Amino acid sequence: MNKWLLPERSEYMKWELPMVEVFETVEGEGTRAGFPTVFVRVFHCNLRCSWCDTPYSYAPDKAEYTGSIEAIVDQISQYKSRQICFTGGEPLIHREKSMALLQAMVDLPHIEDIHIETNGAIDLTPYEAVRLEDKKWQEKVRFVMDYKLPDSGEQHRMLHENFNLLDTQDEIKFVIGSDEDFTVATDVVAKHHDKGQVLYSPVWETMPPHKLVEKILEAGLSKVKLSMQLHKIIWDPNKRGV
Ligand SMILES: Nc1nc2[nH]cc(C(=O)O)c2c(=O)[nH]1
Ligand code: SF4
Ligand SMILES: [Mg+2]
C-alpha cells in the first residue's frame, strides 16, 4: 500500500522543498553514464559518509534556496535532457514531498528516465508500491541504491530489505575505498542481491581504478560493472554543478 496518498496536483505543486541546485550536464555514473541529464539536488541527508563529495547538501551548511515543486519542474522543462538524476543529499528524505516531486517529474511528457540516487538507509517500500501500480512510474522510475560499506562509517544504517524491492531496471552501487570494502561488497552481493545491475565504483582518493579492475577480474565477478565518476575526470573533482 502507498502510505502517502497525495492530495490534488494543484495542491502539491505548491509544496516547497529545500534545494541545493538544478543543472544540466552528462550523467557521470552508472548504466546511463554519458547521457545528457538534468540533476535535481535536494537538501538534507540522514547519513554522514566519511568520503562524501557533496557535504554542501546537508547541515551545518544551509539550503541554497527553497523551491516549489512547480518551480522545480518548470526549470527541468527548460532543458532538453530526457533523463533526470534525482539526488542530494538524500532525495527521498522528504517523504511525501519527495513522492510529490517524483510524481510531477513523471508527469513531464518529455522525460523518459528518472533515476533516484538513494543511500540505502531509506525504506523504498512506499515508492516501490506506487511503481507497482502505475505504468508511467514503471516506464520511467529507477532506483540507484547505494550500499554504504565499512569505510563510509555508515554500513550499520543499511536496510537489507530494500534488496527485495529492486527490479531489473534498478542499480545497486558500491563505492569501494579499500580491500575490506571490496570483500564486504562481494559478500553482500552474494547474500542479498536479487535483481538490478551491480556497480563497483572506486573512492576517488583511496582506491586507484586500475586496482579495483584487477580485483574484479581476479574475483571472477563477471556481472559487476565498473562505474567511474566521469564528471571527476572531465572537470576538476571539486567543481560543483557538473
Ligand atoms: N555528472 C554528474 N553525475 C552524477 N551522478 C551522480 C551524481 C550525484 O552527485 O549524485 C552526479 C553528479 O554530481 N554529477
Ligand atoms: S548518503 Fe550521499 S549525500 Fe549523504 S553523506 Fe553519504 S555520500 Fe553524502
Ligand atoms: Mg550522490
UniProtKB/TrEMBL annotation:
InterPro entries: 7-CO-7-deazaguanine_synth-like, Aldolase_TIM, rSAM, rSAM_sf. It is an enzyme of class 4 (lyase). S-adenosyl-L-methionine binds at W51, C52, D53, G89. [4Fe-4S] cluster binds at C45, C49, C52. It catalyses: 6-carboxy-5,6,7,8-tetrahydropterin + H(+) = 7-carboxy-7-carbaguanine + NH4(+). GO terms for molecular function: 4 iron, 4 sulfur cluster binding; carbon-nitrogen lyase activity; magnesium ion binding; S-adenosyl-L-methionine binding. Pathway: Purine metabolism; 7-cyano-7-deazaguanine biosynthesis. The keyword Iron applies. One of its GO terms (biological process) is tRNA queuosine(34) biosynthetic process. Its cofactor is [4Fe-4S] cluster; S-adenosyl-L-methionine; Mg(2+). Keywords: 4Fe-4S, Iron, Iron-sulfur, Lyase, Magnesium, Metal-binding, Queuosine biosynthesis, S-adenosyl-L-methionine. Belongs to the radical SAM superfamily. 7-carboxy-7-deazaguanine synthase family. This is 7-carboxy-7-deazaguanine synthase. The lineage of its organism: Bacteria, Bacillati, Bacillota, Bacilli, Bacillales.
